[in-house]
Amino acid sequence: MDPISVTLLAALAGGLGGEAGRQAWQGLTALVRRPFHRGDTEGDPGTVVPAVSSAEPELTALAQAPNDTARAHALSTALAVRAVLDAEFARRLDEWSQHARQAGERDSVVHNEISGGTYHNSPVIQGRDISGVTFNSPPPATGRHATPPPEAPPRP
Fold first, then answer.
1. Burial class of residue 94 in the structure, from the number of CB atoms within 10 Å of its CB (0-12 exposed, 13-18 middle, 19+ buried)
2. Residue 10 within any structural domain of the chain
C-alpha cells in the first residue's frame, strides 16, 4: 500500500473538499479509532511487539493545526506503520484512500466562464485556487464608473 499523501491529509484536516472532504475526514477518524489488532502476535508471550501509535494522537494533532506539514507527515507515517502491523486496518485504509482520492478529484473539477460586460485589453486568468495575482493596468476611462488615469508628473 502506498503511503497516504501528506497533502491530502492536510487538505482534509483543513476542511477542503466541501462535504466530500468532510466525510472523508470523518471516515478516516472512524477507521483510526477502531481497535488496533497487531496481527497474529497478540497473546504470544515469546513475541515482542514494538510500541507503536494507533495514529489517533497524530490525527488529533493534525486536526488542531491542519497547516502544519510536520503533523501531516507524522500522521501519514503512523498510518503506514499501523497498516504494516494490522492487515485489516491496511485493507480498510486502502479502501478509504481510494475513496478520498476520488472525492478530491471530483472536487477539483473547475468550470470557468466569462460573460456579460465589455473587456478592454484586460488579462484573464482561469483556474482554481489562484491568489496573490495583481495587474498594473488602469481600468478603461469610459463608462459610468470610469476612473481617470493618474496625472503625469510635469516634465522639467
1. middle
2. yes
For residues 62 and 72, give the distance between their C-alpha atoms in angstroms, rounded to a whole number.
6
Copy the grid coordinates of residue 61.
Answer: 494533532
Query: What's the number of domains the chain is made of?
Result: 1
- List pLDDT tens digits, range 105-145: 555 556 677 777 776 666 677 776 666 666 666 555 565 55
Q: 28 is in which domain, residue-wise?
A: 6-36+52-107
Q: Where are the alpha helices (DSSP H) in the chain?
A: 6-13, 18-32, 56-64, 69-85, 87-107
User: Is residue 28 assigned to a domain?
Assistant: yes
Encode pLDDT of 24-78 as tens digits: 999 999 999 998 876 655 555 556 556 788 999 999 999 999 999 999 999 999 9
- Model pTM greater than 0.90? no
CA 89 to the chain's CA centroid: 22
